[in-house]
């Protein structure tokens, strides 16, 4: 009997909440798993893959879903060669994104981000995708060319149309506030499918979206050189923990912030109204997080 080469992850998620489905999809992407069917993902068998899938199964069952992990050998239909090709195609698509990004002027921080992203993809490249050499050469050329942008930040724009997915929640609400207040004061927002010339955020393959373990708000903060602002970094930590739900930062304010965002979402069906409510909340939070001015000593 043919020995199994593959580890399969078979799962069924509850219909709600929507964020849980997106979260699990992102987890699978970060593991480098490829879809065999809509709810069946594969990785080459290894101790690390087994551990990763087991942790993901626990997360799904804790969220009210079902999941199984099994070893498999394909005896009909897909061949091992075809599955390997699926892995190479997935990694080639990711290498191509890095190559395209490396063809544009970038800040030093962005070059480092591309180098880190390249290492992440290579770690999941089990079958030697051909795009790796091209991506490595493009990043090396960018690093050596001296064509990095001065100031270390993406160019700010005015009056752009920014598009994101409908039914906005914490990451998109906060990102819209950040865009309007600090990046593009005359921004216009659309919710749904992209359109020519629009800047996309928190969307699959968007211009600004999740990168590694960063939420979209964190990506915008990094890409536009706003990390120096301590109040914005504090808000980013809260948005991250509410959106990603990994308790990475554990700020004391986060539970209250999460409840207020939930209230805004519950009270407002329209996305524009949610962003308006979130803007008021985040303006107040931003001001409250500003360092207090030093007390003046009484005059003698």
Structure description:
The protein is α/β, with parallel strands linked by helices. It has three domains: 6-72, Alpha-Beta Plaits (2-Layer Sandwich), CATH 3.30.70.240; 83-145; 161-288, no CATH class. It is built from ten helices and seven strands. The protein has helices at residues 18-31, 47-62, 80-102, 108-123, 131-145, 170-183, 216-223, 230-244, 254-267, 271-288, and strands at residues 6-12, 34-37, 40-44, 66-72, 161-164, 188-191, 199-200. The protein has a four-stranded antiparallel β-sheet with strand order 2-3-1-4, sandwiched between helices. A three-stranded parallel β-sheet has the order 6-5-7, with no helix packed on it. Strand 5 (161-164), helix 6 (170-183) and strand 6 (188-191) form a beta-alpha-beta unit. Helix 3 packs antiparallel against helix 4, helix 6 packs parallel to helix 7 (216-223) and helix 9 (254-267) runs antiparallel to helix 10. The N and C termini lie far apart (93 Å). Mean pLDDT is 88; it is low at 148-152.
């Amino acid at each position: 009997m043919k020995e199994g080469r593959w580890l399969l992850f078979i799962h069924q998620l509850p219909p709600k909440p929507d964020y849980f489905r997106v979260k699990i999809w992102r987890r699978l992407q970060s593991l480098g798993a490829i879809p065999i069917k809509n709810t069946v993902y594969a990785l080459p068998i290894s101790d690390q893959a087994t551990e990763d899938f087991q942790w993901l199964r626990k997360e799904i069952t804790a969220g009210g879903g079902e999941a199984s992990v099994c070893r498999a050998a394909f005896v009909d239909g897909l061949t091992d060669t075809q599955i390997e090709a699926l892995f190479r195609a997935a990694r080639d698509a990711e290498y191509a994104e890095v190559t395209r990004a490396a063809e544009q002027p970038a800040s030093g921080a962005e070059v480092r981000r591309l180098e880190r992203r390249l290492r992440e993809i290579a770690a999941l490249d089990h079958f030697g995708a051909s795009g790796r050499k091209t991506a490595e050469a493009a990043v090396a050329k960018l690093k050596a060319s001296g064509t990095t942008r001065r100031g270390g930040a993406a160019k700010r724009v005015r009056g752009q149309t920014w598009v994101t997915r409908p039914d906005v929640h914490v990451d998109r609400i906060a990102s819209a506030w950040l865009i309007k207040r600090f990046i593009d004061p005359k921004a216009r927002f659309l919710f749904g499918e992209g359109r020519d010339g629009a800047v996309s955020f928190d969307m699959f393959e968007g211009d600004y979206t999740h990168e590694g373990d960063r939420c979209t708000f964190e990506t915008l903060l990094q890409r536009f050189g706003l990390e120096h602002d301590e109040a914005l970094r504090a808000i980013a930590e809260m948005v991250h923990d509410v959106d990603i739900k990994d308790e990475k930062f554990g700020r004391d304010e986060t539970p209250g912030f999460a409840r207020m965002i939930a209230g805004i979402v519950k009270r407002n069906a329209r996305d524009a109204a949610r962003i308006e409510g979130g803007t008021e909340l985040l303006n107040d939070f931003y001001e409250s997080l500003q360092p207090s001015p030093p007390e003046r000593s009484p005059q003698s």
